[in-house]
Amino acid sequence: MTGLVLAGGKSSRFGTNKAYATYLNTPFVVRQIQLLAHYCDELYVSSGSRENTKKLREFIFSKLPSTIFDKLTFVTDRPDFNSFGPVKGIFSAISLMKSEFVLSVPVDMPLLNQTCIDSMIKYFSKSIDLISWIHKGRITYPFFLGKVNPIKKILEAMKNRKSVSFASVYRLIPSIMLIDPFPDDILANFNTPDGLEEYETNPPISPHFLAFRVVHNLF
C-alpha cells in the first residue's frame, strides 16, 4: 500500500500555504506523513509546481527523521493532465505507483488519526474498489483507500478534459464503501485558519459509532 499526501493546492482561502500551518505545534504536512508512515513503506507527496516542491522538500527534510524522509517521493503535477485541483495531483502520483492500493489524505485534514485509517483497512475487501467517509453529509473525496489500477484507468481516460473533479472517479468506480461516523469532527478540513484554535483547546474525540453502506454506481 502506498501513502499519498495531497499538498499541492494554492491555499488561496487559507491565506498562506496550509501545508506549513500547525495543529498542536506540528505542521499539517508533517502530521499527515507521520500518520501514513504507520501503514505505508512508500510515501508520495503531491506538491504541485516545481517551485513548491523544492520548498516543501526542504521544509519537510528539516522536520522529519531520515527513517521517514527517505520513504518520500515528491511528485510535481503532470502537464498532460488538463484539469486542475486535487484530481491533478492524484493522477500525477497514482500514475507512478506500482502497489495494489493507495491511501490518500489531504493536507488540510489535520485531525485525522489512526482510528480512521484502521477502520478503512479493517473493512476494505476484494469486492470493494474504494472506501471513503461522509462528513456533514458530504463525501470526503480526497480522503480514501482504493485500488490503484481502477482509479488510474479512469483518470487516464479523463486527462484531456478541461475540468475534472475526483467525484467523477466515484461515479465510475464499480463498488464503493462509505463510512458515516458519529461524531464526525475528526474529518473536518480547514480551508481557512478559522476553527483550528478551538480544536487545539478541545481536540475532537474519535468516532464511537460507524455506519457503513456499500454503493454500486454511486450517482
Give a short overview.
Helix content is 31%, strand content 27%. The chain has helices at 28-37, 50-61, 66-69, 86-94, 114-123, 148-158, 167-172, 196-201, and strands at residues 2-6, 22-23, 26-27, 42-48, 72-76, 101-106, 130-135, 138-147, 175-182, 209-216.
Helix content: 25-40%
Strand order of the largest sheet: 5-4-1-6-8-7-9-10
Task: Please report the distance between the alpha carbons of the first and last residues.
Answer: 28 Å
Rounded to the nearest angstrom, the radius of gyration is 16 Å
Structural category: alpha/beta
Total DSSP helices: 8
The CATH superfamily is known as Spore Coat Polysaccharide Biosynthesis Protein SpsA, Chain A
**Under CATH, the topology is which?**
Spore Coat Polysaccharide Biosynthesis Protein SpsA, Chain A
CATH architecture: Alpha-Beta Complex
CATH class, named Alpha Beta
Q: How many structural domains are formed by the residues?
A: 1
Question: Tally of extended strands?
Answer: 10
Largest sheet: 8 strands, mixed
Mean pLDDT: 92
Strand content is: 25-35%
State the shape: globular
Q: What string, H for helix and E for strand, traces the elements in order?
A: EEEHEHHEHEHEEHHEHE
